[in-house]
Design brief:
Largest sheet: 6 strands, antiparallel
Structural class: mainly beta
Shape: globular
Radius of gyration: 17 Å
Number of helices: 0
Oligomer: single chain
Distance between the termini: 41 Å
Strand content: 35-45%
């Protein structure tokens, strides 16, 4: 496929080699795209899982994302970004144990594209990744993206949520009865819920992070 434009690639989330391990040298690449961002949510980072579902190993060669429009009021400013991998299984239940994770990429001043629900053709930038990694056949690995800004990563919401993704709707003119008093935005994906899939790979939701470090959150 043609190389992405300088600001990133439209819609791309995961670039993977979706062939058996023995054939990976000869394989072409494919991309699993999530839906375009549909809200204004952002976070310091995000845990999520990748599962190889077609009975064959996958080689993940790239992950793309974007910052929320809340990043310095829409300015595309540099942010520290790290990408962490848990090869031993799901991210769930392992969010506080750094010994379970290995950092596979870091950039202290990455300028990710800024996206919002208003963008008809949003662009996503490459996260720092120093090496490809494998998702074994029918197994799960965990990923964690960490940034230095509360709006460093844009967060996708469930279909139909639209731009209204605040914790307290009354703060922004919405009805108070729609507020989520449990501290989770309405229409957020649940833990372990599949947010994107194709015939070879699925992506499942994990927790967001509250800061860049691994201290208790």
């Amino acid at each position: 496929p043609p190389p992405p434009p300088p600001q990133g690639a439209p819609g791309g989330a995961l670039a993977v080699e979706s062939t058996p391990r023995a054939e990976v040298e000869l394989a072409g690449s494919r991309v699993l795209e999530t839906r375009r961002v549909n809200a204004g949510c952002g976070a310091f980072g995000l845990f999520f899982d990748l599962e190889a579902t077609a009975g064959r190993d996958l080689l993940v060669t790239g992950v793309r994302s974007a910052a929320s429009a809340g990043l310095n009021f829409g300015e595309r400013s540099p942010t520290a970004v790290q990408l962490w991998l848990r090869e031993g299984g799901s991210c769930l239940g392992r969010e506080e144990d750094v010994s379970e994770w290995r950092m596979i990429g870091e950039n202290q001043a990455l300028e990710l594209p800024v996206v919002s629900w208003a963008d008809q053709q949003p662009y996503y930038g490459d996260l720092p990744q120093s090496e490809p990694f494998r998702v074994p056949a029918n197994k799960t690995v965990g990923l964690c993206v960490r940034t230095s800004n509360v709006a460093g990563i844009a967060i996708l919401m469930q279909p139909g949520k639209g731009g209204d993704s605040d914790f307290l709707d009354e703060d922004f003119g919405g009805p108070a009865e729609e507020d989520d008093v449990a501290g989770v935005p309405l229409k957020a994906f649940g833990l372990g819920e599949v947010v994107a899939r194709d015939p070879a790979l699925s992506v499942s939701c994990g927790y967001t992070t509250l800061h860049m470090g691994w201290e208790r959150q």
